[in-house]
Amino acid sequence: MPEDSTSKVESLKESTKAKAEELVKSVFPKKVMELQNILESELLNYDRLPTIYTDLNIPTPDLANNHEPSKKKRKMDGHDGGEDYIKMQGSAVLALPNGISPSNQHIVEIVDKLKPYIRDLVEHANCVKMWITFMIPRIEDGNNFGVSVQEDILADVVHAETESASFSTHIANYFITRGKMVTKLMKYPFVADYRRVVSELDEKQFMSLRLTVAEMRNNYCGLNDLILKNLDKIKKPRSHNAENMF
Known about the structure:
Radius of gyration: 28 Å
Order of helices and strands: HHHHHHH
Distance between the termini: 17 Å
Number of helices: 7
Shape: elongated
Structural class: mainly alpha
Number of strands: 0
């Protein structure tokens, strides 16, 4: 490796170490309190749960006022009229009164609030992961207790990073699933269960987002506590051969 590249890599390592230690000591406690405040705010208060439902802008068909297809048409089509009626209703409902079946704005508000925290936790965990990796000494026989401590903490950091990245996937899956259910409801507006399942999905997502905030808070708090308690072992896992440290 050219000397210039080597010096840049070493500079990157040193800056990562300094940044990660600052994250653990200063940024993590602030994130814990910010997430705790969100958890206790009106935004995620369980008292709000009965009010998070939204109008889907999909009218409930008035079956009594719909005209049954004529007997002549039924004979021509070779059907008893039931299938024609379903198709007629489906095509009518697709023309929504206001042109769109909206997302649940209550859920969207919470998602928009949490996405920056999810991104931050992924980035912070990744930085701390690299810091601990850089601090692992050269492999050799004996005196490896400190190294095992590093590896245990590193596993917790990787878990926090992976779990945080999965939160974005869960959010996307909610919108995909909800969109499919709304589409079903548009096609079969006279099936009350489809209308109910959308509300159930919204309620489930509200609780899931509240749990996401709690898990992010726990990750920040747990890593801060664990790393500070074992900071000496992370920075100097062996009591001798300091020159063998990266």
